[in-house]
Amino acid sequence: MDLLAEWARSLYETTGINLSYIYDPWDRARFLSGLWMTIYLSVVGVIFSLIIGAVGAWAQSSPLAPVRWLVNAFVTFFRNTPPLVQILFFYFGLSPLLPRVEDPDGMMQPLLSSVQWAIIALSLFAGAFNIEIFRSGIEAVPNSTKEAGEALGYTRLGVYRHIVLPLALRVCLPALNNNLVNLLKVTSLAYAIAVPELLYVCKQIWTDRQNVPEMMITLLVVYVLLVGVLVWGMHRWERALAIPGYGQGGVR
Amino acid sequence: MKAPIGAPAAAPWTPDQPIVSIRSVRKSFGALEVLKDVSFDVRKGEVVCIIGPSGSGKSTLIRCINALVPIDQGSILVENQEVNDPALDKLMLRRKVGMVFQQYNLFPHKTALQNVMMAPIQVLKQNKAEVEERARSLLAKVRLTGKENSYPGELSGGQQQRVAIARSLAMRPDIMLFDEVTAALDPETVKEVLVTIRELAEEGMTCILVTHEMKFAREIADHIYFTDRGVIVEHGPPEEFFANAKDERTRAFLGQIL
Questions:
Q1: Closest CA to B167 of B219, B117, B235, B203
Q2: How many domains does chain B contain in total?
Q3: Crossing angle of the two packed helices B112-122 and B157-169, in degrees rounded to 10
Q4: CATH number of the structural domain spanning residue B34
Q5: What gap in Å lies between CA A200 and CA A68, rounded to an integer?
Q6: Given A142, A153, A243, which is nearest B119 (Cβ)?
Q7: What are phi and psi of B110, to 5 degrees?
Q8: Do B153 and A249 touch (CB under 8 A)?
Q9: Which residues cross the membrane (chain A) (predicted)?
Q10: What domains are defined for chain A?
Q11: Per-residue pLDDT tens for B26-49?
Q12: Which site among A152, A156, A252 would you substitute to test the B interface, given the most B Cβ atoms closer than 10 Å to its Cβ?
């Protein structure tokens, strides 16, 4: 680490290329906490959006029409509005309407922090797409397969959980993959409500150090790597779920 | 007429009563009336074959027995329990009535063994080790030893259909429904499935089959029902039924098939 810092410092002194987040402990701490925040937003967002997708897709096949309308309205709202507007709406539009709570120092604080609002907004945004993606997978499961489950005594929920969802997941993984990649990238929009994620801290650093090109390139490279890891993981998952003789899992 | 909700519990079933009793059942899909006043009884251990031209309502009839298709009018009693009752405990019914489908309908993401084990574990919450033992012996019974870890996509149609039979048997049903189970199979694999069904029948399992295999029906059935356009046109023991069918439609149908 010291060697790397030494190299970055000499790089700056000899060429003027300023990678301050490598040699400067303060910048390094900021940078790493931003990186961590981006990963945190992504992981939590992926988990919540998957839950929203699975529950929403199930509710969408409900025999109760009002439930289906509600899900459709939700999907339409979040799909047809820009994610940046959604984040601003939640933070500046919705948050002030909620009660404030007292923190240990006696200060009145908003009920939810900007990080929590970012997670809510991102999860709902990606979740709305996941509902549509899961639905396409669910529709690919033949009725006869569900019927076989029913005939074995499964309830509607049991059929969904044990039979439909595992099959639907395999059908919709490629589309899901794209949406989760997108989710990771739109975490940068949390910048707008001052969530100290990667873009936000990089901007802080380049404001202090006047090293905009270096930080920009760093930012892009880090996102390429993060998405690369996510895609790699998704592909491994796809392969692990592949079934011989089913779908793309092999030749019949 | 629908059974009233909260009707008093039916008298317990005794083996001298019909195990399945179908009375004046009517069913329409939109304007199309598929079943028009169908009635018959099945006794325990009996093997009943339902034959008839396509679209005569055979499959719908068999699906009504385990409530996959709700009926519009009439009554279906399975071990004295009214199937056409909104308060019916479907799980209770489906434990008693196993069903095998034309397209096998195995769960493609599970191996043969897992397909057989799933419902007893997930629905009946039975002990996993016991279920596995039973599942293995059921697969052996349908002559699929060695195929336990194959996925449905790796099995032939006949093998898949035998897994499907084992899967139904794992629930320990009292009655088995077979809905044209050989219709989607290659001629050479039909036999292996029929052999399995015959063994089941010989063990005393109550079987209701919808089939186009006339020769098989003649050999295995205790009673044959011929349906056409939603009604039972003619029925009787196989010898009688095939030898001297009285109704013109039956004769025309048998003339085309045999």
A1: B117
A2: 1
A3: 20
A4: 3.40.50.300
A5: 39
A6: A153
A7: -125, 150
A8: yes
A9: 35-58, 70-94, 114-138, 183-202, 214-234
A10: 2-97+109-249 (1.10.3720.10)
A11: 999 998 999 999 999 999 999 999
A12: A152
